[in-house]
Design a protein that fits this description.
Elements lengths: L11 H16 L4 E5 L15 H6 L7 E5 L3 E5 L4 H7 L6 E4 L4 H6 L7 E4 L6 H14 L2 E4 L4 H6 L12 E2 L2 H4 L3 H14 L4 E4 L2 H8 L1 E2 L12 E5 L4 E4 L9 H5 L3 E4 L4 H6 L5 E4 L6 H10 L2 E4 L5 H5 L3 H32 L3 H13 L6 E2 L4 E4 L23 E6 L1 E3 L2 E2 L2 E6 L5 H19 L8 H13 L10 E3 L8 E6 L13 E4 L2 E4 L3 E4 L2 E9 L8 E6 L17 H18 L5 H10 L4
Parallel strand pairs: 1-5, 3-4, 5-6, 8-13, 11-12, 13-14
Antiparallel strand pairs: 1-2, 2-3, 7-9, 8-10, 10-11, 15-18, 16-17, 17-20, 18-19, 21-22, 23-26, 24-25, 26-27
Helix pairs in contact: 14-15, 16-17
């Protein structure tokens, strides 16, 4: 699907939609309503039919929350979206607040005493809901579950249809393990957790466990559905029948019962008397309420597919290597175009994003983008999650920087890479800042660490060069990435926020420190890397994990101040560029290859 640059919302949404929602709230005797960004599947990226926060407020960020009261309303967004939320949301209708500092819990602590605030139990995980209930109790307010969401009732006539993209087999030659084998493994994990069955609601787990892919979520090949998996490895898979392709029943096999979504409530009721594993951080409160009312014993625990999915097998890792080499060739052609054509014609951000998408499409293997391309020229590059839309598009500017962050979905892997390039001659200030970011990037690429280390413990390594200069960036350093799945995948991440999940062999993560000078330009350097098995270090006493680089595309050498790099850091850049030339070069035509040779010459 080609990237759209049209704006799908506008600030008038608040004035148009709030009265309708408040009318439906009044019919249910509610003083307020919680409006999370997440949908029934706790998705980060949403089908249009589930983007409730965008419909009520106009805000389209990938993280946020809202609350509607009788006479007031608020939208919450994090630091990535500070500028975007103020551009998309009418401040006369919504108070705009920080999602992280205090956030929705702090707002609820100030709710009117005795207020009854509704929530849709299908949209909140028990873990998240418990925090909100505690906050409301401090104010003497009540959070009340609703059977019919007032927002959905108000939206009914205009709401898009639920997606019905075909669900198709994902061949074992890409998955590296059959679904039957996975189900045996997951069945054992369910039994080890002391349960008879598990309820799976995460689309990524459904896709991974059954080796299927879909298209219900933008830029991510996910099928929306649910499953009940028994400890013996048999399963019931619930999908909209309109999504079931002819090949699917045979692919799933006799041990998987394929059923319509309408059968799910009855299936949960049928678990009466059984111990059922379900993830309180991932599955919505509705599942817990249903299971408990049916007489099942709920076993709270992490989704049993989460860690096996995150730890890629050798076939998936090799697939990611090949996808990145293919994608690296497309990105190198794009960077050659930027250097030889765009530097003179100074195209706008839409033309830049379309050019990159065109180079990826030309591989013949692209299934979709892995997210809408971020092409930020000048000041727009200083917005970490900027997306070009008609009203904000800028042309490339001589003397400034261009930040481009994009990726592709291929059958053998998912890519995500950011490069920052100088437009015209780079200034000394731009070179210094780029090189500080590069030093942090190199530190994260080359670190060795013992078993049990978390991404939280590594995060400061990427920030240290900037901290020593009195600088920082307001986003994580690394997120997990799936295998022809989501470009954002947990439970692993590298960030300031505490995360107890150790980094394990086979996990793929991004490495993307940055620097953003508001109103001027932004810098980010991003590659994907996979955790390697622990290996002995000569002279050392303990084996150490490390990272293998997956992404290969040249850095803009005009922005590298070699004098700021240590000898080891210069050696790393030279080795990385040599490997880029060796791996990507054979896929390139002569003109682009000659350009790449010059770009990857030793510093």
């Amino acid at each position: 699907m080609r990237q759209s640059f049209d704006e799908t919302t506008d600030p008038s949404f608040g004035a148009r939609h709030l009265p309708r929602v408040r009318a439906k709230m009044a019919e249910q005797g509610l003083d307020g309503l919680l409006v999370p960004h997440e949908d029934e599947h706790q998705n980060e990226y949403l089908p249009a039919a589930n983007d409730r926060l965008a419909w009520i407020s106009g805000f389209t960020g990938s993280a946020g929350a809202g609350v509607v009261m009788k006479d007031s309303a608020a939208v919450f967004a994090d630091g990535r979206y500070t500028v975007q939320v103020r551009a998309q949301v009418d401040p006369d209708q919504f108070e705009i607040l920080d999602l992280v500092e205090g956030g929705l819990p702090a707002y609820l602590e100030r709710a009117p005493k005795g207020a009854v605030i509704g929530y849709d139990p299908r949209l909140h995980s028990p873990d998240a809901l418990a925090t909100l209930k505690r906050a409301a109790a401090i104010a003497g307010a009540e959070l009340k579950p609703v059977d019919a969401n007032p927002l959905d009732l108000a939206w009914a006539d205009e709401r898009p249809a639920q997606p019905t993209a075909p669900v198709v087999p994902h061949d074992d030659r890409y998955a590296g393990e059959s679904s039957a084998s996975k189900r045996v493994r997951i069945g054992k994990a369910i039994a080890m957790a002391g349960a008879d069955a598990a309820v799976l609601t995460a689309p990524s787990s459904i896709a991974w466990l059954f080796n299927i892919r879909g298209g219900d979520v933008i830029r991510t090949p996910l099928p929306l559905g649910q499953a009940v998996v028994s400890a013996d490895g048999s399963a019931r898979l619930f999908l909209d029948p309109r999504k079931v392709t002819d090949a699917l029943p045979k692919w799933l096999g006799d041990a998987v019962s394929l059923e319509a979504g309408e059968a799910l409530p009855g299936a949960l009721d049928g678990l009466s008397g059984r111990r059922v594993l379900i993830d309180p951080g991932q599955s919505s409160s509705w599942y817990f309420d249903r299971l408990e009312s049916a007489g099942a014993t709920v076993v709270r625990g992490i989704d049993p597919c989460a860690l096996p999915r995150a730890c890629k097998n050798p076939v998936e890792i090799e697939g990611s290597r090949q996808a990145h080499i293919r994608d690296g060739a497309a990105l190198t052609r794009f960077l050659h175009w930027v250097d030889t054509v765009a530097q003179h014609s100074l195209p706008d951000e839409r033309e830049v994003a379309e050019a990159l998408e065109g180079f990826r499409e030309a591989t013949g293997a692209l299934k979709d983008l892995s997210f809408d391309t971020i092409a930020g020229s000048g000041p727009n590059g200083a917005l970490p999650h900027y997306k070009p839309v008609a009203s904000t598009i800028r042309r490339m500017e001589t003397g400034s920087l261009l930040l481009v962050d994009g990726g592709g979905q291929y059958l053998d892997g998912t890519t995500d890479v950011t490069r920052t390039v100088a437009v015209g001659e780079a200034t000394a200030d731009q070179r210094r800042m780029f090189t500080l970011v590069l030093k942090g990037h190199i530190a994260m690429a080359t670190v060795r660490f013992p078993a049990g280390t978390t991404g939280h413990q590594l995060d400061a390594l990427a920030r240290l060069p900037m901290w020593m200069a009195g600088l920082d960036y307001d986003h994580g350093t690394g997120h997990g990435v799936g295998s022809y799945l989501g470009v954002h995948e947990g439970p692993q991440r590298i960030a300031k926020a505490v995360n107890s999940q150790p980094l394990l062999t086979g996990m793929i993560l991004s490495n993307e420190p940055g620097y953003y000078r508001e109103g001027n330009w932004g810098i980010r350097i991003e590659t994907l890397q996979v955790v390697t098995p622990p290996q002995a270090i000569p002279g050392g006493e303990r084996p150490m994990h490390g990272f293998e680089q997956l992404t290969f595309a040249p850095l803009d050498r005009r922005l590298i101040d070699s004098d700021v790099l240590t000898p080891d850091e210069r050696a790393y850049v030279d080795a990385y560029h040599a490997e880029t030339l060796a791996k990507v070069g054979p896929l390139l035509e002569a003109e682009v290859l000659d350009w790449l040779k010059a770009q990857t010459a030793p510093l």
